[in-house]
Amino acid sequence: MTNKIVVIGAGESGVGAAVLAKKQGFEVLVSDAGTIKKEYEDVLTKYEIRYEAGGHSADEILKADLVVKSPGVPDSAPLVVELRGKGIPVISEIEFAGRYSQAKTICITGSNGKTTTTMLTYHLLKAAGLNVGLAGNVGHSLAWQVAEKDFDYYVIELSSFQLDGMVEFKADVAMLLNITPDHLDRYDYQLQNYVDSKFRIIQNQTSDDVFIYGVDDPIIQEELKKREIPAQCLPFGWGETFENGAGIKGEELIINLGKKSFNMSIFDIALQGKHNTYNSMAAGLAGMVLNIRNEKIRESLTDFKGVEHRLERFLKVHGIEFINDSKATNVNSTWYALESLNKPIVWIAGGVDKGNDYSALTELVRDKVKAIVCLGTDNSKIKEAFDGIVPDIIETQDMQDAVRSAYYLAKNGETVLLSPACASFDLFENYEDRGRQFKTAVRSL
Questions:
Q1: Are the C-beta atoms of 315 and 443 separated by less than 8 Å?
Q2: pTM of the prediction?
Q3: Which of 120, 205, 335, 413 could disulfide-pair with 209, CB 3.0 to 4.6 Å?
Q4: What is the pLDDT of residues 385-436, one digit of tens each?
Q5: 319 is in an annotated binding site
Q6: Residue 112, annotated ligand binder?
Q7: Does the annotation place 114 within a ligand binding site?
Q8: Is 85 annotated as ligand-binding?
Q9: What pLDDT score was predicted for residue 187?
Q10: pLDDT for res 171
């Protein structure tokens, strides 16, 4: 029996894990190397959970029976290496929560589209009247929900970092949307390490479980040749329809599962653009697996409102549409954004470059972008990549300046798109902060 649990990191997932551990009767210490937000301090105080901030008491932490680690703390952190060296298990909050819940789990990962697909799947299950929680990278901490109000179902968005800390946890329905190089700095710059991490979504699955995957993705296709997968495999893709799976025929989205089938026009889907049709196929398949009626699936795919900061059509000012896609923190996400728009674009881009290769965007930028407004402390790579392709490239250092500059460059009937293709940490707290500042700046035009 594990008696002493240390939680490293006092954000949403860490505090949630601490609340669950306390409720399960463990001795708990929460340790954060930085500062702890007041709202989380208040929760720890309310539950009488010990915590420390501004550094770790290594001597005490190394006496733990179990450590729950925030996904933001890398496996290479010296304390984590030392813990593992001593044979002390280090797991994720999701792994910990899963030990105390009998709920059915629908788990979603991929390099792009996972938040939209997670929110859409949650919307679909909720509309169908299921008792469902939303967790992982979106919604509230899974552990916290298990502690306070356990649901019958959870729709869980999982990053590769969360998957890395999962050992016995099993997804009843696993979704792998796509794999493109991302976060390689955390995977020794080896793509295979990142791919292996994403495929952990299917670990521990049996023949009773379901694996939904994007069949058009070349990395997934290659990987499937190497693996034996016990779960029922349900592909979704653009070019064909499947006996069991989802596809497109002409202008119809078609889902088949056993004797059941579902179809609707792709033009009736609330979220337009090819990538969103993929997201809708994946969510629709999950709905079929859970025996949700066709009319509820159709209704949910038709009335879904989308995700804040993800291709969020925000406001029109003097005929210029402003779109907030701050969540696009990699090149692939920005590719989807540019691909889905048909009017001339003034593109606001830049931030912390994660080793980006912008060449994938060259053709789209040449065809659609009339000007680039760089927003970052170092914009040299963007300027270098698109010099000679886009006539106007200007540099800015804050959001208000970027929005004002884009507004002057755009004309009636054109689009200003914030889709940075980079992380936000040079000038902003996170992508949400960046998106909110964008919307504030647009409102003040």
A1: yes
A2: 0.79
A3: 205
A4: 999 999 999 999 899 999 999 999 999 999 999 999 988 888 898 899 999 9
A5: no
A6: yes
A7: yes
A8: no
A9: 64
A10: 96
